[in-house]
Amino acid sequence: MVVRIKRNDARADIGSGITKEESVDNEILTVEDVARILHIAPNTIHSSKWKIRTGCPLHKHGKRLLAIAKEFWEWFKNQRR
Predict the structure, then answer these.
(1) Hey, is 80 helix, strand or coil?
(2) Which of 39, 52, 70, 73 has the greatest number of beta carbons closer than 10 A?
(3) Has residue 70 got a pLDDT over 80?
(4) What element of type H or E holds 65?
(5) What is the residue extent of each domain of the chain?
(6) Among 1-5, 57-61, 67-71, where is mean pLDDT lowest?
(7) Are 16 and 37 in contact (CB under 8 A)?
(8) Global model pTM greater than 0.70
(9) What is the dihedral of CA 19, 12, 34, 29, to 10 degrees?
(10) How many CB atoms lie within 10 A of CB 52?
(11) Distance CA 73, CA 38 (A)
């Protein structure tokens, strides 16, 4: 499920081909999106040990693992400090 919201945020390229503006527009990030942003394998994201160790804000929706863009970008900014 993809929900699109238009926002007038400044475009911020993070070097992975996905911009912050694009992910906020989509509002929900898939495991593949998160993997591309963090430059890690999707299987790593599915690991429960990795989720606990990093504290990445991921949510189960049925069988899918998703991240809410706003929560993810806040977590991402805090990881870079």
Answers:
(1) coil
(2) 73
(3) yes
(4) strand 64-68
(5) 32-79
(6) 1-5
(7) yes
(8) no
(9) -60
(10) 9
(11) 11
Our CA angle for 76, 8, 2, nearest 5°, is: 65
Both tokens of 75, joined, read 């977590």
Count of CA atoms in the C-beta half-sphere (13 A) of 47: 11
CA-to-CA distance for 51 and 61, rounded, in angstroms? 16
Q: What is the CB neighbour count within 10 angstroms for residue 69?
A: 20
DSSP per-residue letters across 7-61: --PPP-B-SSS-BHHHHHHH-EEEHHHHHHHHTS-HHHHH-HHHHHHH----EEE
List the one residue out of 22, 58, 12, 18 whose CA is nearest residue 38.
Answer: 18
What are 73's two structure tokens? 């970008």
- Is the CB of residue 35 less than 8 Å from the CB of residue 42? yes
